[in-house]
Here is the input.
Amino acid sequence: MKDLFNTSVIDKIFVVIVAIALLIPVSHINHDEKSITENRMLAVRPELITHEHKINNKFGIEYDKWFSDRFFGRDTLIKLYGAQSGSAGGLKVLVEDDNWLFYTDENSLRNFANMDRLSTEQLQQAAAYISNFDDWCKQHNKQFILVIAPDKNKIYGEYITKVEKVYPDTQSRANQLVDYLHANTQVNVLYLYDTLMTHKQDGLLYLKNDTHWNDYGAYIGYKTIMNALNIKPIQFTTTTTQTNPRGDLTKMATNIPADNETLYMSPDITNTAKCTKVSSLVDITTCTNKHYTTKKSVLTLRDSFSTALERYYTNTFKSVKLLWRYDINEKDLEYIIKNNVDIVILEIIERNIPLLSFQEFPKD
Here is the structure.
């Protein structure tokens, strides 16, 4: 009887300990908009019932992404895992020679190696969203363009020695989507791979310790986008040099020193725009400029790669609205009509292309 009692007490204590352990992740949910460490927007908490009073069929997937981004102790667990794995760069960073760092999360290295192909269904779903978006813009006399920004590992893959390509870049998912859109739609799509590869001889286009392009790389992307839209891009006559001691990959990694030696070229352009963030809940920025070079206005759906494009956009257009997401909704469409937006840009980083297959254009 005594042994039975002791066993019962031990079982109860074990249950209590497990219950406490399960409650720890939800004890303090992170409500920040953006991860400073990872330099990206965190997932927004989804609604079960949409503003159209319909059930959100993606609620489970979206809630999982929201919780995974925000549970208590997440950053600590990532660092512990990275230290345990013995990687000098930690869980999300590949460290290569000459202080080159590359992002490894979100299947970035699989994308670099071109290991994964888009299925026919994914291509059809992505094309449906993009082409419906493009059709709507044409019906309302708006220009639409899809811009695909290459990952750093695609432009500077020669510095990656620990991973080999399975297929050449001509068989990448980006090219797969571009080819499908060209064959089946009238969408204006721009993949910036070729133009960036051409301009590598000008100087560094991406930050060695960061996932993003630098100011000059972004300018090359901006200039190509403007040419595709038949808009004269702003020019520069002088440049400055900058360092980037701690990029987002340095912040994610462990035991990686600051880089105070690498110099990056930055176009010398005076920013005359006035920008305001219109919401404290999501990243929505509106900019106006009295010294614009074109009277046109633009709305862009984007990710972090458009951050370096902002000063070029805002010094070109009379009005710019930037939304940090890939999905368009009815309120956005109403905004486009009400504010006479002339151009809509959907910019997406290459590794995120599969996300386009999950988007749906609002129904009439």
